Amino acid sequence: MSVTCRVIIAVGLSMAIASQSFADEPTSSGTGFAVTADGWILTNAHVVQDCGRIEVKGKGDAADPRINEINDLAVVKITASEPLKPLAFRKSPTRLGEDIVAVGYPLATLLADSVKITTGNVNALAGVRNDTRYIQISTPIQPGNSGGPVVDRNGYLLGITSATLSKKTADEIGITAQNVNFAIRASVAELFLQSQSLVDQAANTKDHIRWFRWYSEHSREVGPRCLDR
Fold first, then answer.
1. pTM above 0.70, yes or no
2. Which position among 72, 138, 162, 216 bears the catalytic label?
3. Radius of gyration over alpha carbons of the chain, in Å?
4. Scanning 96, 109, 156, 223, which has the fewest C-beta atoms within 10 Å of its C-beta?
5. Are 215 and 25 in contact (CB under 8 A)?
6. Are 226 and 164 contacting, i.e. CB atoms less than 8 angstroms apart?
7. Boundaries of domain holding 8
8. Catalytic: 21?
């Protein structure tokens, strides 16, 4: 059976999201954000890869899903009634210890409808086994954060929330690690966009960033991938 994924659009952080009742909505959720003005949305591959249909709430169906499973990235295209304001990629290197903000819609069926902000730091400049596609972050992430942007204090993209340590690893090392989470580097996402001929459309402004909430008809929210050591 194919899965229908639905998206509810929220506008910039300074503006209120329209009131919605989620009693009859699907219970799975992830996060995505605009990377082009003409309607391309970036998220994690694991958020949308099992969806036979991707629907944008109030906008109709999204089209042309393009997925890179290796790097857990995907883009889909919506028809926007007005130009979107994409998120700007930071050009300078990520710094160890710098302050970061993770943006998303965790536990959307339980918590408030509005976008959630968590803060933390860059803990390491590589992921599990020195995987340089990732940065390690201390920002708490929950099911529903997947695909959301990790930005610096100026609102520029540093990464895309993607993964946490697996239960298997916790069992192997004998402890449950706290806030050991990972984001795919923005530079990896840029290469993916370039491979799809979308990189030249990336934003150079962070004004009125638009976030996108993904809903899919699963029995649980789409959580971050679990990485083994």
1. yes
2. 72
3. 16
4. 96
5. yes
6. yes
7. 3-86+192-218
8. no
Catalytic residue among 28, 46, 162, 216: 46
Element (H, E) at 194: helix 186-195
The dihedrals phi and psi of 170, each to the nearest 5 degrees, come to: -60, -40
Q: How far apart are CA 95 and CA 93, in angstroms?
A: 6
Strands, DSSP E only, in 36-180? Answer: 40-43, 51-56, 60-61, 63-68, 73-77, 99-104, 116-124, 134-137, 149-151, 157-165
- Considering the domain architecture, whether residues 73 and 48 belong to the same structural domain is answered as yes
The total of structural domains in the chain comes to: 2
User: Could you identify the residue written with the tokens 């659009």?
Assistant: 9
Q: Is the separation of the CB atoms in 85 and 201 below 8 Å?
A: no
Domain-located, residue 34:
yes
Mean pLDDT per 10-residue segment, the chain (229 residues): 50 28 50 86 85 65 88 90 85 96 82 84 94 95 88 91 77 74 96 87 49 44 52
Structural domain contains residue 229: no
Among this protein's residues, is 46 annotated catalytic? Answer: yes
Of 28, 146, 162, 216, which is the active-site residue?
146
